[in-house]
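Quick illustration, no need to memorize.
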Amino acid sequence: MIITDEIRDQMTEIIKSKAIRTVFQPIVSLKNGSLFAYEAFSRITLKKCSFSISEAFDIAREMKCLWAFELLCRKISVKMAADKPQNAKLFLNLDPDIVRDPEFRSGITVEKLEKNDIDYGDIVFEAAESWAVSDMELFKSALKNYRGQGYGVAVSNVCSGYSGINRILEVDPQYIKIDAGIIRDIDKDDMKRSFVSALAQFTGDLGIPLIAQGVESYEQLKTLIELKIDYAQGFYLTKPSEKFEKISQEVKKQIINLSNELNKAKFTPSYLSTVKELCSKKPMLSPNAMFSEVYEIMNDPNVTETAIVDDNGEFLGVLTKRQVLSALSGMYGYTLNMRKSIGEVMDTSCLSVTEDTPVETASKMAMARCQPYIYDSLPVIDGQTREYRGFVSIKDLLLASVNIQVRRAADCNPLTGLPGNIVIDEKVEKLIGSIGPFAIIYFDLDNFKAYNDAYGFTNGDLMIKAVADTLTEFCCEGDFCGHIGGDDFVVITNGDRTESFCRDAFRQFTNRSRDLYSEDDRNRGYIVSKNRSGFVEQFPLATLSAAAITNREHNFESIKELSIVIAKTKKLAKQRNGNSLVIV
């Protein structure tokens, strides 16, 4: 763009008269439609201005007043953001070139934030990926400056593939924004979909949330939720506004319904067994044994590996038949290695699992190994003493995993995907004689029939899934969530977490279920429906009743004793209404 005297005069006037206003666009969660942040966009208010806001930054750079122009935009954005919702983050666009401006002064943003009573922890500075391509050192320097002051850092307009991502990761961003050009037609373009899917998996492993820019249709929204993208912004959700707008209830319901439909429960319990039930003992050797001994053992065609243990039986490493043959190959392999001790050649970095590792977990760990180790048997050890317990073959692991999947499919509730009564009974039986603290929490959905009658079966299913999603959301590793049927659920967790688990579940379910009611019913706090006798009656909004039994003061000796207490506990739960907990 050629910078004429007229353009220079216009830029000077914009800065002098502060002819800038700010509009804000929401960034929302694609899990539940909740508000996460706002991005601030500057707009020029000078009449008959001959250039756009994006061109204005290039003009300011050429006129060597970039910092003055950026500071003006930032001051106005922060001033207008004084009314932003509490805890909502504010994304501010950053031109890294400002650090070169002689007028640039670090720390000035803090002054403006304090003046407008805004927590600097809510601020996220975002810079476009293009800067990482054109000047990586400048890009890193600018973001490092703000990261060092405690601000969040985001990289926007990401679209250049893995080379670009690796470059971006050098600045350790808290967020990555996907360019709107990638999001456009993502529901129709398999290549774009594949790229975003791979990017989501890559950044997900690193714990970096993805934000999709430029969402303009329901189809795009659905695709992004299916790909498990964390957040999104765009005209389909809400257009930029000088006010801090929220997305409509209709769009929020779409997000919730799509999320419930496309993304199942976060936590998937292991059904069957641990590797302890699959492993078998194989030959053991001392690290002081000579290589010749393992050579003789490996002559047995049924032996493919041997464990190396110390005098106390503690696992030290492994030698496989492949490693032995490799060591003896070549012109001097036999001569050089036959007189060595096993401790000199064993593999001490091999993957091992504890005997309480679930079959499915062990399978995933084994198949994640690189070649040529992927089909090696897994050594199984005691979790505390590291004592050698045996080996489990990949064949046995995969067969057991398939059996688990088949059984899961047969027993799972078709609506929630949670395990049913068969697995619930097995889990309860294993608690008999358990030393560690445990709690069995029975959850009942209050006033569900009235809701189902008033809103229909489709919405009734959504209410049931809302309970399932809420309970699984707060399950940790080692917890179990089952669906007895209808509106009845069971959670097995650590006994010390009973109160906190129920408190979190009550709060989240209240928030999640409100979106399943009409605005009138929400405001009234009740619905009008027929009771079991067919008469019209007022019913409160749905809540959860929970009854829990723990082994804090009593150890259960038999499944019969436990079943009797569970039955009484269920009855108590049915008698209590409205987000209440009874602990027996």
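Residues 275-400 form a domain with the CBS-domain fold (CATH 3.10.580.10).
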